[in-house]
Amino acid sequence: MAKYLTKRIGRSLITLVLIICVVFILMRMMPIEGYFQNFEKLSDEQIQSGLREMGMLDPLPVQLVHFFQNMFKGDFGVSHKYRVNVAVTEILRDKIPVSIKLGSLSILVSLVLGIPLGTMMARFKGKWFDKFGTLFIVFIEAVPAVVYHLLIQMYGTKWLNIPMLFDGADWRCWILPVFSMSLGNIAYYGMWLRRYMVDEANKDYVRLARAKGVSENKVMFRHIFRNAFVPMVQYLPSSFLNTVIGSIYVESLYSVPGMGGLLVNCVKGSDNTMVQAIVLLYATVGVIGLLLGDVLMTVLDPRISLGGKEGGR
Fold first, then answer.
1. Neighbours of 135 (CB within 10 A)
2. Who's near 190: CB < 8 A, 6+ residues apart?
3. How far from each other are the two terminal CA atoms of the chain, in whole angstroms?
4. More confident position, 108 or 258
């Protein structure tokens, strides 16, 4: 276990370093307007002076080394457009808690509804509940998310008499964004849990339990569900962290002052420093989520050995 963790963490760090390098290089290829306010009013001398002050006239490898040095100190630069000369970390510190709260609520709703959905679909395979769940999953997966997000906002605000724009002090304003963000994960959890449970139901140990006269409910929940849930565990941390960090479209749709809306505003405003920091944050969250998923699988299922050649991933 310790050997596997060491290897997995090392691979994750290498992946993260590569992502940082690629994002940094791509951002340096963006127009330099994104590093200046009122760029069109600046003279060539002022532009060159600003670039020199930011170290952007140095060779690219030197810039990358300086970026890593500053990053380890917690310095990601300052915003040049969104909030001029305000530290990126200060802006993110105000935005992240909102996305964490919104994402945590939505993932909680997803687990509370998605896991029972998949379980009951497998329990009543081929019956009306299974067909209803399949219809819901197909709708969520096939229809572009923007369509049902807009429908939820349009009719939800009208029927429930909820303000269209987000107000953190009004608990009602959390309902529609949380519900919108949870729909994709509800369908995802339901679909895969049903599949894993159906696969488990056809295995020999289940047939043996039934032959011994074990009740169907005990077989379903004590044996099938417990073993079918293990493969899903791998994806829970990444989906949880990605949801917690915020939904770009939903937060923008409801004007939620979180990470998703921040990224959209920074891209529109061509604030390269802010975009770079936010993209790196999302990448870090994704890598950590995958790492935690693999580790959690080995903890919950001792039969899985990812450290040996037969279990290598």
1. 10
2. 114, 115, 117, 118, 121, 133, 136, 137
3. 14
4. 108
Q: Which residue has the tokens 């791509």?
A: 26
Which tokens hold the place of 138?
């197909």
Q: Hey, is 244 helix, strand or coil?
A: helix
pLDDT in tens, 67-111: 899 888 888 888 888 888 889 999 988 888 888 888 889 989 999
Q: Are 150 and 164 in contact (CB under 8 A)?
A: no
Give the predicted TM-score (pTM) of the model: 0.78
Cα(297)–Cα(311) distance, rounded to whole angstroms?
Answer: 12
**Residue 133 to residue 114: CA distance in whole angstroms:** 10
298: Cβ contacts below 8 Å, ≥ 6 apart? 1, 4, 304, 305, 306
CATH number attached to the domain at 89-300: 1.10.3720.10
Point out which residues pair with 87 in neighbouring strands: 78
Residue ranges per domain, the chain?
2-72, 89-300
Query: One-letter amino acid identity for 120?
Result: M
Q: Which helix (H) or strand (E) holds 4?
A: helix 2-28
31 token code pair: 């127009």
